[in-house]
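Review form for a predicted model. The reviewer records the input and the model, then writes brief findings.
Reviewer: anonymous (R2)
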Amino acid sequence: MPPSKAGPSVDILPLRDATQKGLTAINKWCKTVGLKLSALKSHIVIFTHRQNVKINDPIKIGGNSINTVSSTKFLGLTLDSKLNWNEHIVKQIKKCKNILMQCRRVVGPTWGLNPKTASWIYTTIVRPALSYGAMVWANAMLTKTNQDNMIKLQRMALKMVTGALPTTPASALDKITNTTPITEHLRFCAVKTAYTLMATGQWEGPVKSDLKNPKKFTSHANTVNKTLRTLPSEWTHDLTTPVLSLDRDFLTEIPDRGSYKEVESEFTTVIYTDGSKINDNAGAGLTIWKDGEETTQKSFNLGPHISVPASEMFAIQQATQTLLDSGTANERVLINCDSQGTIKSLDTTTSRSKTTLKTISNLNTLSIWNNVTVRWIPAHQGHHGNELADALAKKGAQNTSEETLIPIPKAAAYAALRNKIKTGNRKISNHMDMIWADRFGKSLKNMTRSNLRAATHLLTGHGNLNYHMKKLKKVKTTTCNLCGMEDETVKHVLTECPLLWKLRQEVFDKLCVTLDDIRHHLPFQKTVTFYRRAEKLLHPEDPHPSSR
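Model under review:
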């Protein structure tokens, strides 16, 4: 039922009558084609911010009344009468938590699914269930309550991945697992969907409100449109609706690298194409040879937003366009390209890239009057034509004074949108800021569950050491169990405790270790090994370190 915007004395009788008339007509048509509407499976929701709005005379289908409810589910989204989407978010979070609780049956602090698998479950099963339809309920992400609940869900998942203690901050877990903050991820999902609609000509943007107080309401379209407007207005977009393209009048070949043979002598026109990127600028180059003589050289600067694969495709497009413009006919044409991915894209039956579709069209048109083959050639193997095309592509990339504007690939647009959404550096604790180094990320990615758990405790300070356990009221003192001289902190254990010198010598091959050594010089895996062995010396009574 359409939204009600009347004053205190809401008169919905005209709306009720119009709805009843429409349902009667639909029900009549259904009977003529052997279908039947079910009143039991139908609901009425009055979308309004007014309270106590009721339909006195119920709407009916075939004499059966339809229940009026405050919310209903449609295409996986829960629509509530106020369209604030709170009920939908609560239900989805509950659903995601149920999935995670099932997963916890096969995950323990130091046993069970490895971190990669646990992370995969969250990012490919749980998180998509939450982000479904995010563009429609984008404005609901603006409320702090919803944001907090989403952050708690991701924190719950990442604790399962890392084996972290319950007190570990969400921002620290995001950083350790290299996971995008959930609010940022959901905003990107919403904007990405809107961009797809915009690029394919299906995005109308926010509609001007005719409400008396429009500032009180935030349109989902208006929420994402603010980010879409940050894209440069001069951009044309490569993304299009899927196009089925079955006709291929040209041949494609990807010979085996080990048995590759030159076949240029069998063709009258031979073309070499290539794409390159230097200093964040893309370039494309091509060279055309006829009867063994070079006739054409071209290079293009494509700017900073074009990828190398897109440059490769553009080079083939320009090569075919050059032959079409010159009226080439009755020739055996060979196009050499050193990108297998580009050649495979030419063989795909469905494409969403304007550049790819234009290239396929050019090849088919050229093939009407010629015999055309697109063939893979190994790169940097001393083939003169390929090396020349590579040099032309690099020359184009460096010639920033003459940029050729081509449709922007969706990956470049997504990257630009993501950068606008990023909330900046995530706030982390003083402890983690003191010990963290970006180079740790690679080691953390491949750790076992036991090692990742120890690394998480080490990096966050939320572990088994007395300094943290005292805050949880699980021990009576913060003093080091070995030396009894200073607080038992991560820094003390790694660099200061005099009774751990022998272990430092054994693991690090040096008596004295500084935080600078740990951050910039020592292998992080060795640091984790030292920390785990030190924990056993500090707390030998614990069968499972960091489990108190």
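Findings: The longest strand covers residues 293-303.
Further findings: DSSP finds 20 helices and 14 strands in the chain.
Recommendation: see findings above.
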